């Protein structure tokens, strides 16, 4: 009897102790703090750490995919009809983007680096080859016309040169040329006349193997939330990108910087030198990438909305007060005057008008939105896809008969999808970390559960003792002897 009641009371006491311990642990969040400290130790850029080597040369493959819009009715468009385009592609490139010229500064709190990108064609992931031909706007010609339309003499020279060389507003181009650069006959003449300096044109001309300027990053040593966050780009603080007037899509690197331990309420700022600004993304849904749990962040439609809906977007209107409507960004200033307008692919989230103006646009969320999936615990990027479209602003210019009776149009030339998915090895490592973390964080609840179980056992035995059945009473002396 004594041994038995000892056990029962022991269970009762243990139950209370476990409950108290569990509740205290749960309330003080001691395991969360431990976990956070461990993560904090790991997310710092220091020579020799794994975080540093991953940052310096990210293991998962990045792919850049280009889709072009092949114009089928150029003559009709010059007569004022709607353009009819057919999407071709993807033309896929593997992108290599190691950080180079890495230099630690300020006692290891910041690190400077450049981020050159190299593109290698991936025929297996492409539909078509770099030798494919696409019919689209002659961008160098339109740029020259736009730039000199108010300079009578030069406008006249350009118009005559175009006629002599049989250059029209639209032309056919090799895909590889249009991307990486070719010698343009009109630019050759203009260079000879010293009107332009470079006779080459390409959307990614001189972008293979070159970097887009100097970056400084925070290492996270001072504040772990700042881990790998971009501080400056070419000597300018990146905090002000919001208000900066449009910029460079074609020469851009982009970096996404994440805080470890991401909350659903957070705004993720994605810096993109393409757009010369950062845009933000907000939580949309919970996802799984290779089994690892993640939060999906997407830019909310307000990011692209017109001034009526989002007055903060006044920066979109360039020059000041000149608004194109939702979803468009005039980046002419940083394209050396080329009338380039950026948007989401197929004018996703832009005014319906732009979709309607071109036959062949088919905007949809899955294919055309920019997404970022991050693991909330570590802030690691699981999947990302940046999707941007390059358009040319076309309108009649009386100085140039080449523009015919064309409607005022935002004409789509191509869009790109720059995407990355975490590699299997990193995903497995991360999966382990997340699983362990789940166990650790749940220790207080496991303790509380055990406490409750003991409590139940204690109560059951106490109840049984209150009404001892005869058989048990007979056996008692045996047990206690
Ligand atoms: C990191 O350490 C190695 C070896 O100690 C050294 O060669 C390298 O220059 C260091 N890198 C940086 C960025 O300081
Ligand atoms: C670097 O650390 C030393 C000593 O800890 C300190 O005297 C110095 O001011 C620090 N320099 C910077 C740029 O923070
Ligand atoms: C870019 O440069 C690399 C190495 O210099 C080369 O292998 C690759 O073919 C180039 N890509 C393009 C698109 O020219
Ligand atoms: C694009 O259109 C042109 C003219 O119709 C055609 O010759 C060319 O083959 C098309 N390109 C592709 C990749 O289909
Ligand atoms: C982008 O390219 C243009 C012309 O090639 C150059 O003038 C400009 O400085 C570049 N911008 C960046 C951010 O590298
Ligand atoms: C802004 O967009 C909304 C909805 O798309 C539209 O109703 C409104 O007229 C637009 N405002 C301007 C100034 O374009
Ligand atoms: C785009 O911006 C440039 C330079 O600021 C300006 O000259 C041009 O008119 C703008 N284009 C449109 C379509 O508003
Ligand atoms: C990139 O986006 C396009 C559509 O925008 C899609 O068809 C393609 O599969 C995507 N590529 C990757 C690697 O996810």
UniProtKB/TrEMBL annotation:
Q: Can you provide one Gene Ontology molecular function annotated for this UniProt record?
A: scavenger receptor activity
Membrane as a keyword of this entry, yes or no, is yes
Spell out where the chain crosses the membrane.
439-461
Q: GO biological process annotations for this chain's record?
A: protein targeting to lysosome; receptor-mediated endocytosis
Instruction: List locations, semicolon-separated.
Output: Membrane
Keyword Transmembrane helix found: yes
In which domain of life is the source organism classified?
Eukaryota
Keywords, sorted A to Z: Glycoprotein, Membrane, Transmembrane, Transmembrane helix
User: InterPro entries per the record?
Assistant: CD36_fam, LimpII
Question: One GO cellular component from the entry?
Answer: membrane
Q: Which family does it belong to?
A: Belongs to the CD36 family.
**Under what name is this protein listed?**
Scavenger receptor class B member 2
Organism field: Cirrhinus molitorella
Taxonomic classification:
Eukaryota, Metazoa, Chordata, Craniata, Vertebrata
